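All the exercises in this workshop are built on plain-text protein records. Sequence and backbone structure share a record, each on its own labelled line. The structure tokens are whole numbers drawn from a learned vocabulary of backbone shapes. The record below serves as our worked example for the rest of this section.
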Amino acid sequence: MGDREFFEGDAEIQRQEAAAAGEPLEPRVGPVPKGPPKSKPYTHPAAGWGAAKAVTEFLVDEREVVVGSLEMFKMNQEDSHGFDCPGCAWPDTKGLALDLCENGIKHTSWEMTGKRVTREFFEQHTVSELFEWNDHDLEAQGRLTEPMVYDPETDHYVPISWADAFKLFGDTVRALENPNQASYYTSGRLGNEASFLYSLMARELGTNNQPDCANMCTEAGSRAMLVSLGTGKATVDLKDWESADAVFVMGINAASNAPRMLTPLAQLYREGKQLVHINPQVEAGATRTIIPHEILAMATFHATPTSNLNIQPRSAGDMALMRGIAKATLEMAKTDWRAVDGQFLERCTSGYEEYRRLVEATSWDEIVHQSGVAKEDILKAAAIYREADRSIITWGLGVNQHEHAVDTIREIINVLLLRGNIGREGAGAAPNRGHSNVQGNRTCGVTNAPSKEFLDKLAEVCGIDPPYEEGMDVIGTVEAMDRGDIKVFVGMSGNFALSSPDTRFTYASLRKVDLTVYVSTKLNRSHIVHGKRALILPCLGRTEKDVQAAGLQRISVEDGDSMVHLSQGNRQPASPHLLSEPAVIAGLARAALPDSGTPWEWYVEDYDRIRDTMAKVLYGFEDFNRRVRQPMGFRIEQPARERVFLTPSGRAEFSHAPLPDVVPRDGRLVLGAMRSHDQWNTTIYTDNDRYRGIHNLRTLVFMNGDDMSERGIEEFQPTVITAHAKDGTERTLKGFLAVKHDIPRGVAAGYMPELNQLISISDYSAQSDQPLMKQLNVTIEQDA
């Protein structure tokens, strides 16, 4: 794909046509482009000077050059002056002075901005007017500064005191016919202490309606690993990454989604280890990199490769690919007994013989057809796996967000089990957590399906009578809103309206709710798409000082490797009217539970008190306050890491699922929604996607060149994308530009949240209940 420019034909056409027809239309998500859209292949290393340049430009735009640069030295540092990056969940590296990345700096600077959203701003703009703004511009107004309540008579948000805001919430909740008419959502930014209090509040109120962002992102992996290994978490840590012989990276755009992963990948390559990337697109992080904190490499522009082999399966073809690696491994074992770990299989696993027969009965033709990968490439990957004594397989949303994702991840575990790559140094399963504390939220109780053991402990220690029936997840909550069964919705951080599937259905459902409450740092779409009554409650950010009665407080977070460590903000709060997340939760809880015996206010005075209670309730948190103050914190005990499998059989369980048919039919394509490089979840920094060579454009669809030719679509031509939902309905987007891309035939891709409009509320996995963000059944045609 050569350098190209185009000047018209983007989704603005659809906006104009719909407006002329009097149809409702969702606002643009990204900012108004600064120039004409451009496409130019990215040929440089990931990170390095490209990242440094992008960060500098971003800091200039945010007017945070000096302060932002200084804050880099405090990000992800273990001493008392360090704060945890509010971005990804990659573990911190001991002794590394600059343990950071481009997206981490952007994410932190976005929070530290000097811009403010005051009561004067809300006086100047009605909510109806703000709805027409793009989402980038909403967030770009800056930090929220005081509690606000929606006034339906004037269509404005107006100031409200904290006491009156809590009272409005408490009065509304106590007036509900039953506690399950409320739902309590959280994103992964909530710290452990706040997560525990939030979970306690919901259960004391009598509901398990606690949906979270994991319902949309990582649920499949947790469910798969729990059944296979008795744990939903990684069995590896950073030391294992350092000593692995081979790493298989599946469905992860490392340079954008987990940039700090590039450091161990580069180091492993230098040591002669093998790196295999498996993804429909060959992303920048799967080519080469310059690590910014490696001064000599930066000075000499010396890049290190980050891959020995790139494999591009069709979307959802990962399970067939893993089955192929297993088949090749078992075929090797017929002449080489060391190809499988017989002793481990006999002592530690269950169901191996049945799995072996299943693999032998699966033909190579079926494996190649379903994976979309040539047999010779599968054999190359299998050879790498066989020759490596210790292998790690890590996967991300590109694996999680499919119909058969649970079966796929169980197949990944099957492959690891064949060679005993569980419970050994340098080997294991490593689900990639894309958000700072999404794993900690779950560990500390935020889930719609809590275990009986957790609820029993909560009842015993906290003296409450928790409900035991399963609550609603994200999909269930949106559907219940539509039915009128959810009257109160609370969102602790995040942007529920924009991140959920079926955008218009979600918007309409939220507007039926009696009261929406959002605890946030910045203005976003969810504040504008609100219930009949609405509260905006501004909270402290991760970078800010949290001073309570006992002095300066620290919170804890859990990274993707189950390490729990402290984080302390060091900046002055953006406004004197901000409360910490634990303080907001305590205020809401006391207002809704005026006679509660839970010492909400006492907990907030000193977070050590919250941690002492958590230590009595949560498995692995014993002696919490002492252990979390150790250098780098502590690792939650991981039985599977020690080859103790908390499954019914007491062994690691092989799965025996047949290969699903994932090949599109009748001229259809499989469309996946993903993030651009210059965004983090629903926060859009710019309309650029540097690593994919896109500038000033988000309303696009990446396509294979042969698929475009077959449909008579020229490059950069506007298209009509029609999604065919499970429930038989269709959703259509017009004007998205076709961009020729190195992607397998039958596969297309574009950006979320723009493409969320195509995902029906019925399009979710029966295995994980996750929306099918990476497996939409679509037709794409020319826009006449």
Q: What stands out?
A: The first strand starts at residue 4 and ends at 5. Residues 225 and 231 are 6 Å apart (CA to CA). The chain has three domains: 4-43+666-782, 144-212+437-627, 219-431.
